[in-house]
Each structure stands twice: as C-alpha cells, then as structure tokens.
Batch of 2 targets.
Target 1
Amino acid sequence: MRISPAKAIDLLQRGEVVAIPTETVYGLAADASNELAIAKIYATKQRPANNPLIVHIASATQVVDWASEFPPLAHRLVQAFWPGPLTLVLPARAEVSTIVRAGEPTVALRVPAHPIALALLRDSGLGLAAPSANKYTQLSPTTADHVEAGLGAEIPVLDGGACQIGIESTIVSITGDTWQLLRPGMIDEAAITLIAGRPANQSVTHTPKAPGQHLLHYSPHTPCLLFTSRPALMDYAANKPGGAALLFGDDIANLKTTITLPAEPAVAAEQLYASLHTLDAAQASVILIESPPDTPAWAAVRDRLQRATYQPVSQND
Ligand code: TXA
Ligand code: MG
C-alpha cells in the first residue's frame, strides 16, 4: 500500500512499521527508541531476535546520541562516505535498546543518501531501525513492487523509485583506531583502507555478530546454482534444459530465459536483485548463475551470489 511522506511520519511516530526507500535497498523502518515498534520489524520479517538492526540517522551529528564513542577513525569515514552506503558499528550508549542491538554491546549506524529517506529522518525527528524490507533469508527489495510482493500488499510503502546502489551497505566495525569489514558492499575495502589510513585488523579477539552470517541469504524461491565459469554453466544448461540464467559480460549464451548484466560492478549491483526477482518469477526449475570475476571490485556482488546459492553440505552441519 503506497503512502505519502506525511502518512509515513504519522505511522512511524505512532510505533508502526513503514517500508522506506534508501539508495541501497528498501528498508522496513520503525522508531528505534520504541521497543514495541522494533518488535514489529522482527515479527514482520520473521527474523530471529539475535540478528541486530541498523539505526538510520539524519546526520553525523546524531552519532553521539547512539554511540558511546566516536573515535577519529570513525569521523574520517563518516566525512568521506556519509550520506551513503556505509554502516559503522560502534560501542553503544547504555540507553540504546538491547532489542535493536540484539544484546550486542555495539550499535550499527548509517546516514542513507536517498533524499526521501533523509527528509523522513529529518522531519520525523526519529532514529529509524531498518533492516532490508524482505522476509528473513529471501531476496532484498530494490523497488516498492518488490516490497509488496515479499511482505504483502497491506504493508505501507513510501515509494522512492528503484534503488541506485542496489545491494546492502558496507558494514565496518570500529574499535578505537582499528577496523574490521563485517559485510562487503559497493564502498570497497580499498576505499575504506585509503580513508582509514590503515588496512583492516584481521586479528580481532571479539568477533561481533557477523552480518548476514547466515550462509543462506538474499535468496530467490527458485533453486539457484553458481558456476565458476561460463562453459560449465553452458554444459549444465545443455544437459538439463528448462533453467533460467543470470550472466555477467557478453551475452553469447543464447539461452532461453536469460538476463545478462554488464561487466561493470556498479551497474551489475544496481540491477542484481531486480534481475533475480525477474528470474524467480519466470518459474524455471533452476536459476543458473555465472560467478563474476574473483577481483576486489566484484567482492560485494560475489558475496550476495554465494549466499543466494548456498547449499548445506549435509543436514547436520
Ligand atoms: O544497506 C543497508 O544496510 C540496508 C538498508 C535498509 O539500510 N539495511 C540492511 O539491514 O541491510 P539488514 O538488517 O538486512 O542487515 C544489517 C546487518 C545484519 O546482518 C546485522 O547482523 C548487522 O547488520 N548488524 C546490525 N547491528 C550490528 C552490530 N551491533 N554488530 C554487528 N553487526 C550488526
Ligand atoms: Mg537483509
């Protein structure tokens, strides 16, 4: 159900959930200071309560409302990348709801770059907890239509058009003057390293809850298979026709239901989930996916595809 910005503010201030556009993916938002409202996010998504939420704020000046520490390294990253697709995990102030942070001593914060999201944050005066607006483990939404298809026609959606980044934010955890990459995104590790002035610290003793730690994630309903090479994918398709396919680069495959994304990571990321939603709707027996090159520029897209296609080795692992 599409709603106006004024209605969205009204609902959020009354403790209801609203799906909102961001530049990465649509989020399912609620007042981050209202525990009953946050509980509705977990219930709507059918998300386990041990997976913490990102709090979206209107500007970097609000970091200190949520985080008990705002070290110089975090300042530099915020100056370079906010508003934008970077989430920072910082030590939380004691008042931050333990439901939002799922019992962690830290809180995840982000200023999104979408003008509608920014206006909503500013005009509502709220910090908004917002995970991606999809059911747990399923494909993330990058349009208002995707949100309604995944969560039902009754879910209130603020329509902001198609998301420009297309995959979830990069998540960086900061401890003093060191940092760790928790989830790859379109702001890549090299860009963070440059601004941070040092590489990620690999030897952190406390491992925070890994974002998207569930190996099956971002996943269509149709079974998916990931192929490391185009020839291997073509071989499979020749022997077992009836599958749909997602390719990267040249469209030389000549398969039936195929989407070919350009060999340009930013464009491919923008269109990734929409393509998988489309292929899922084709009701093929399987979606064959070509893995993009194993290079840093493709790290975030590869991460999402590996999780979308994850298959447990055995039922007991
Ligand atoms: O781009 C995005 O980040 C989107 C848009 C809506 O902003 N949001 C998003 O939320 O992807 P979600 O809930 O699907 O993913 C957030 C991830 C979760 O996997 C969670 O584990 C991690 O962030 N996270 C949240 N708080 C954390 C914390 N305190 N420590 C470590 N990880 C945290
Ligand atoms: Mg998600």
Note: The radius of gyration is 19 Å.
Target 2
Amino acid sequence: MRIVIAADHGGFRLKGTIAKALQAAGHEVTDLGASSAEPIDYPDYAHQVARAVADRTYDRGILVCGTGVGMAMAANRHAGVRAVNCSDTFTARFSRSHNDANVLTLGERVVGPGLAQDIVDLWLATPASLDERHVKRVAKIDG
Ligand code: RB5
C-alpha cells in the first residue's frame, strides 16, 4: 500500500517507529517529517498529508502529534479526507469498515508504541464495508 506519514515534534518518535515497521512489512512509505523535537506547527504537516490522500497520490495517510487531535482537525478540513483519531483497536477497526477512514491520527503522548502499532496494523488491514448502508453514509460525509 502507498502510505504517506508525517508528525510534529510531539509525535516524531512514534512516527519514525511506525514508518520503519511499515517499510519492513513491504509498504511503500513516504515520510514527510518532522524528525526532531524542534517545535513546529502540526497543521502544516496535516495539510500536506491530507492533500496527498485527497488527490489519491497515496492510498492512506498517517499523522502523529502529541494527542492526534490537532492533526485530525486539520486533515478533516479537506474534502475527500476522512481522518480518525484512534487510541483503541475497536475504533481503528470500525473507522475502516463503517467509515472508510483514509487518514489515521495517533497521539504519541496517549498510546504506547505497542498499542499504536496494533492500531496501525488493524487499521491498514481492515477493508471498508461494501454494505449499501455504509457506502451511502460515507458518500454523504462530504455533503
Ligand atoms: C504540541 O505541543 C501539541 O499541541 C501537538 O502535538 C498536538 O497534540 C496537537 O493537537
């Protein structure tokens, strides 16, 4: 899968760990940064990833900040982007099957690396439901 990933200073460590694991698993991963604790603005990275998913350059996007919240808010400003902030595997699974989420946001200060990787793996592996009721509802998200 073609995956674009980015983080701010609050999420760059977890982002690096996840990017390495996804590459090792055979995914095509593009890491847009950041790569240090130097403070930067999370919306700048969220918008880059959101644009690249909205225009279908990538299949999925992953964004990491301290909480995952700001990244999700900014990414969801883009038409065609369905970003979900996940701290548990149940939400990861159903954000894919019922909502066809195409951007995952994580909080490095919220979830540990083991849970984060489980969330990522499940989120990438779960297909969107083809059930008519879910397809219809997802189509209504952009208004
Ligand atoms: C940075 O301190 C923090 O605000 C940011 O990483 C993120 O949690 C925002 O939603």
Note: The chain has a mean pLDDT of 98.
